[in-house]
UniProtKB/TrEMBL annotation:
The lineage of its organism: Bacteria, Bacillati, Bacillota, Negativicutes, Selenomonadales. It comes from Methylomusa anaerophila. Residues 22-439 form the DUF112 domain. The keyword Flavoprotein does not apply. This is Tripartite tricarboxylate transporter TctA family protein. The chain crosses the membrane at residues 21-41, 110-134, 140-160, 167-186, 321-345, 357-377, 413-429, 472-492. The keyword NADP does not apply. Keywords: Membrane, Transmembrane, Transmembrane helix. Coiled coil: none annotated.
Amino acid sequence: MILEVWTTLLHGFYVSISPENLLACTVGVLLGTLAGVLPGIGPVGAIALLLPLSFSINVTSSLIMFAGIFYGAMYGGSTTSILLNLPGEAASVVTCIDGNAMAKQGRAGAALAVAAIGSFIAGTLGVVGLTLFAPLLANAALVFGPAEYFAIAVLGLIILTRLTGRSMLKSALMAVIGIILGTVGLDNLTGVSRFSYVFDELQRGMEFAIVAMGLFGVSEVLDTMIRPPDKISWQPVRFRELYPSWEEWRRSLAPIFRGGTTGFLVGLLPGPAATISTFVSYALEKKLSKHPEQFGKGAIEGVAGPEAANNAAASATMIPLLSLGLPFSGASAILLSGFMIHGVTPGPTMVTERPDLFWGLIASMYLGNVLLLIINLPMVGMFAYILKTPANILMPLVLIITMAGAYSLNNSVFDLWLLAIFGLLGFFMRKTGFEPAPLAVGLMLGPALERGLVQGLLIGNGDIWTSFARPISGTLLAIAFILILFNVVRWVGKIRYGGRAGTTHLDNKQ
């Protein structure tokens, strides 16, 4: 079986290295990198814009190009996240936390290099998994129903809201606000408009990309602008500091493989898997780290793990698309439309009916990962030197790019107002000790939580306990309850013993 797979994969490499297909792969990864760097565009927007151009080339080349755009955007999104605290793509939101902190410490080059190499390793491992386990893992993912997705969302919210390790109450409050924002717009089940008031534009809901760009990017611009000129200083980048030290490589290796594994498994689930996998990877690395206090202040693990996770997830989302014809994410849905436009129906019969296309596409992903490493790694120095641009020039350019990206999502001026509002909100959150990451988690997981809960209640005739009766969802909800109880007990203990220690200290002084 395995020998047969590798034999057909070799034939796929023969297909993918033809001049036309190799050129399509190169163009795809370059456009994907650019789409990731420019805020708001992302793989979905880039593929949608280029669909008409694919009519003039053959189906194999066009789909190889679209796949290159898809995983290339996962590479490019880390660049502005690290350098400017501006997520170029939704899956790069978590990279802002430690990546930008490293940039401000003069380690932008190291962060960029680790992100590129981690993405290459995890992306390649993800394609190996796609090659070997596509039918098996896709069928396993289909076992999950509404109750399981509700349980995953609940557990994810509990684990992921404390990404930065600050106040539990503040993190929980931000997560709840994110969930509330996720309910804005048309209800997917009933079609009822909620919290849109007189603004028709709100009926489509809150765009995660706009919220993320406002909370992280625009707030960074505002925070930089109000600082006195003598305090606005990006650290100079020396040539020997452009790439990671041996200590940074040592600390990055295990997170890269853990992130790749985590991203691949999460990528098998419907929804924004690449984005969710980065939050999961970050929380996991912080939990396993011997120095969790360094997270949020420039921990290299906080860059390596999430960047590996989003690239592995990008490969994993291709599994249900190619083997079952089911798009589990927005980007894979756009890819599916590309298949359909060219008269190709992905699914179980695709392997036998169109082996050249199926294996050529998978082989091109191996080549694409190598091309991305070749393209991105030598440019680390150039990217890092962006930080030497004076802030009074750099920040207006960042704001212009951010506004252009936000406008390009829906060609709506209303989105620019939302960008400004969330930018101001993020700015005031910085000044008052609140973190934007839990709010982003709540906004991202809120719709999945609501959808899983409502659908589960409909299936169970209004009985919520049916979710606990199912083995997988019941186990996940039990773990969530234990985690809540543990956090509450620990919080109460800190208040109790902290207050007692303070009293003892005062008594000793007297």
